[in-house]
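Sorry, can you check?
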Amino acid sequence: MYNILGNISKQEKKYINSLSVKKYRDKERLFIVEGEKSVQEFLSSSFKVRKVYCTDECDFLDKYPDSSKITSSEMQQISNLKTASPVLAVVEIPPVEIGTIPRNELILALDDVQDPGNLGTIIRIADWFGISCIVCSLFTADAYGPKTVQATMGSLTRIRLVYTDLYSFLKQASDESLIYGTFLEGENIYTAELSGNGIIVMGNEGKGISPEIAGLTSRKLLIPAFANNAAESLNVAVATAITCSEFRRRNY
């Protein structure tokens, strides 16, 4: 693997740009974080930061003298943002095993959530409501993609993400955990009995929870509309926030 050292070069720029593509992130086990606040979150976390780049537009060199100083033009060439942030970091993707998933907590499970922005927002929601683990289906958006990382605003440092065969995971977990899912024909979430732990499944933006996953749910929940001519459905991230809030409110 190419080692990121010294002043930025054409080869180094190409290498960093390649991390915008999932297959190269998977191969190198590295991803990009942009923004001073987000980079600081990762530097203060258990994540291993491989390299930090910054421009004269911020005082990052004073705080982290090991950072590499580059020009604003060079930063724009390696950034995934329309207007580059003055700080960018290359960070290692941590290894997470399915055996580390907590069994006595409230966790989220995502059934093919496709939009990176939705995934990033869900990670922030989990962080806000004290949910430490999210189990993702193999076809859920990549949590380490640039758009998702940007949307998490640093919350990714506090959430354990596991990508696995969701059906197999839930089938095994159903022996000891309640599995909740949100459906249009479910029980009103505001009157349903909710536990302090278990698994909350959130479905795909267009299709909702798949039939095979739906068959494993213990309780089907509905977020009721309060208008006669309401929208057909809620955005998955919004629905996740409402659902997590109600679970936490009941068991605070």
Remarks:
- The chain has ten helices and ten strands.
